[in-house]
Amino acid sequence: MPRREILTAAERLTLLAIPEDEVELIRVYTLSKSDLAFVQQHRGDPNRLGIAVQMSYLQHPGRVLGEKEKPNPRLLHFVATQLGVAPDVWMLYAARDETRREHVAELLQRLGLEQFTTEHYRALVSWLEPAAAQTTRGLVLAQTVVAELRKRQIVLPPVAVMERLCAEAATRAQRTVFARLTDGLDTERGRQLDHLLELRDGSPYSILAWLRTPPGPPTARAILVHIKRLHAIRAIGLAPEASFRVHQSRLLQIAREAGQTAVYQLKEYEPARRHGTLVALLIETSATLTDEIFDLHDRLIGSFFTKSKNKYEHTFAEQGRAINDKVRLYAKVGAALVAARDQGQDAFQAIETVLSWDLFSQSVKDAERLARAEHFDPLELLTDHYATLRRYSPVLVDTFEFKAAPAAAALLNAVHTLRQLNRDAVRKLPADAPTEFIRPRWSRYVTGPEGLDRRFYEFCVMVELKNALRSGDLSVAGSRQFRAFEDYLIPRPEFEHSLKDRTLPAAVPTTATAYLKERLSVLRAMLDQTDSLARKGLLPDVELNAGLKISPLESATPKEADELRDRLYGMLPPVKITDLLLEVDRWTGFSRRFTHLKTGEPVKDPILLLTAILADGTNLGLAKMAASCPGTSPSQLSRMVAWHIRDDTYTQALACLVNYHHRLPFAAHWGEGTTSSSDGQRYRAGGRGEAAGRVNAKYGYDPGVTFYTHVSDRYAPYHTKVIAATVRDATHVLDGLLYHESDLRIAEHYTDTAGFTDHVFALCHLLGFNFAPRIRDLADKRLYVPGKASQWPALSTLIEQQFTEVLRLTASIQQGTVTASLILRKLGAYPRQNGL
Length: 836
Prior knowledge:
Layout: H1 9-15, H2 22-29, H3 33-40, H4 45-59, H5 73-83, H6 90-93, H7 97-111, H8 118-132, H9 138-151, H10 159-181, H11 187-195, H12 207-211, H13 220-236, H14 248-259, H15 263-268, H16 271-318, H17 320-343, H18 347-352, H19 357-370, H20 386-399, E1 402-404, H21 409-424, H22 440-446, E2 447-448, E3 451-452, H23 454-471, E4 474-476, H24 492-501, H25 512-535, E5 542-543, E6 549-550, H26 559-571, H27 577-588, H28 606-618, H29 622-628, H30 634-644, H31 647-663, E7 675-684, E8 704-712, E9 717-724, H32 733-739, E10 748-750, H33 758-767, E11 770-771, H34 793-814, H35 820-828
Parallel strand pairs: 7-10, 10-11
Antiparallel strand pairs: 1-4, 2-3, 5-6, 7-8, 8-9
């Protein structure tokens, strides 16, 4: 039987709610002249007000006001004001239900509406099934039904009826989804799927748990074990098209639910559901393994370079004294030779006045041993790690299929060459091995007197493979993170259709000519204004006499304000953080956003939820938190975390808090809520997180992560994201501006130098944000000034050629086809000047 209740109590209230915003109330419920004329045809103020209110409810939200149901007070007052009657006369109208029913029938005929029937119910269940196959979120399905009923001019039934309708459609859709996932699955493959739930030989964990084990630190062994896991999934022989038979969001949801479900529970599922769930989980796990394998490869290659550089510098430091002794010796020899030449003496005798010839000959040999190559590059030590590379590189290139953009065609040929050499167990490279991809820095090592050096050639291929995957010049079948660049964008036909119909959500003109004309006009005007102010010395805190000089910012906070702050803090009573969490939850209801992963229901034990959140926020851990809280066990907290605490529920709860804070009148003292700033804070990674942490030499050699936070001008941290410590902040600036779920409407954003790149500047402008970074080395930046188009014809042509692709990229980010941070990493990693 389908679950009848798919909405929470709060969602039932919001589904058919009357608008709270006054502007929206006026827009929806203002009576037209014909409405007023129709209402005036009825006798008496109670009847006029009653039928006007009934008409308002039928127009929006689209339902009949029930018997003895009181209308919304704000709507009643607004309609009564338009009619010039007192709202209290409603009580006289509501006393006679027969009149209400007669008015409803009259209004249905006037508005062209139909009553909801059993036939409508059956038809809508079938119509809703495709949408239910994409999502199980009850509110989304219910809103879809409401929109369709309004479109079909059908009166909305009670919420309970719509819930049953959505639940039945969801049940049907679930059966369809599992049937699609298991289509073509024979008995043997079903048996292999069931075998995943058994214990792995010599292990207390199931085979499924082993497949989903995180990789740990970057080593050759970790890569090989992960590849072994991937081969185990491929050995089952799932159909490659299985992942495209259902909507990707639904596939991900099934996989996430399965990941949190105990093995014994999966065993209890009926076969179709169990096998479909396992197929979804294996598809998701396969993509995760692929991405993690190449991430490990990327990090391992990086460690090779770091170790080679460190060894090179360490060796040079160790030989520093010997080199210094040789330099001092040759300085003496050189001085003796100069004196001998000036005085016309024999050069060889001059040398022997400093040291014997035998010692001099030996010192020359020692100098040759100490001398470094002319290019002085630690790259020459990279082959010390060749044995480690060879442990996994043959298996890696043999496991995956790559596709290349034209710029990486030679690299792909080199990968195929290595793959064939490994299969044939041939050591020597062929004379015609591809070399077009080799950069100048590598060529002196790869190409030697005896031809191509196999060790440096293979290292060069694997390093360039890493770079090409980052940029998108190479893509990997079965990956999410390393797909072809084109796959991240809106399909071209869909984009061109939106462009033609002028429905593209663009903040700029959609033709290159109009865009360039507008921007050049603005740029010229601003340059004229700046130049005029500079000549008069009127630029605030800026001098442009001999280069750019900007006065440093000074604190605008008076000492008295600091003293007042301390006094105010002293007046606040001490409060336990647990009591504070409970009180804020009573104000805002943020705990209701932590819904169950499978059922969508809010938590039944908010105290346990807040305990788990506190353990997360203080980094105390579940075991220690359980030990600190009598009556709480680690297993209870683990179940709460598994089913209720996720990135998306944290995001929704944060939005709830930010919205409440934003609406507080006192918050307006700090700003309008339309500007924000972002910055990162680095934290050292320890324990199990140490393997996932990255080393950023700027902060030392301890692995860590960065928490990148966006804060509004009302001091609300509306978006926080954990990012790798090695990634530049700028990559994630747009994620916070675009993907927060609060009601904030940010118009202008500030960052420090680390948050600024040309790409971020461009995309902020195209997406409608004013970007105002504080750039540390602004005086070193170049200012491009406009001239005649004939002065830069190649640039004009390039902008015109690529402008539609720029719009397509922007629209893809805006519609969520690709995240801003992912595409910015791709754009920033291009090894060549790419047109886009």
